[in-house]
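User: Before I run my own analysis I want an independent prediction to cross-check against. Here's the chain; please return only the structure tokens and, at the end, one sentence I can use as a sanity check.
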Amino acid sequence: MTPKIYAHCSYIGTTGYNNHTRDFFRELSKHVKLKVRNFSIGNTWDSYSLTPHENEPYINDVDKSMLYKQSLWSSDNELQDYDIYPSKDKEFIQDFNLILLETNHYYFYHNYLGPKIAYNVWESTLQPKNFFDKLKEFDELWVPSKWQRDCSIAQGYDPNKIQVVPEGVDSNTFFPERVDLLDQYKDGRFKFLLLGRLD
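Assistant: Structure tokens:
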């Protein structure tokens, strides 16, 4: 039987989390039945409609086949879900919920029908205590590395409820390119490469 998953995430947009989420769920949708509740909006957002993300340059038919609900803030500051890309194929009761978001996101604090899995990427040794306590309420925690798993266990997470699910690299976008080295780099000495980002 094919598992049925209800994903809760920031699917639309161009941040690292958006890109990771899209790539992850596009691949996962090849193996399971999947529908997506989306929190974020993109640069082309105009207003709510049944097809609100049509002008996002990366959106494709696979995305539309999964996108199910759009979360929006109401005038009384309540988070409400609205139908998007309607299809009878998405009207199913999920076997479990998969919440893939950054630390302390609203979706981690919602009530869910059925089992729930948190998938969270955190690049520090400790999670904020209140959020970590919330993670302990999940049936399972997925993290992208053994290092994050070890840090989570050291902070008090049950080792039987945590899985390493690595983040993949899209080999169609990122691939090695053969280049000829300049003569000054062919002197047999080890070279250091420093990479960083603004955080």
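Sanity check: The mean pLDDT is 91.
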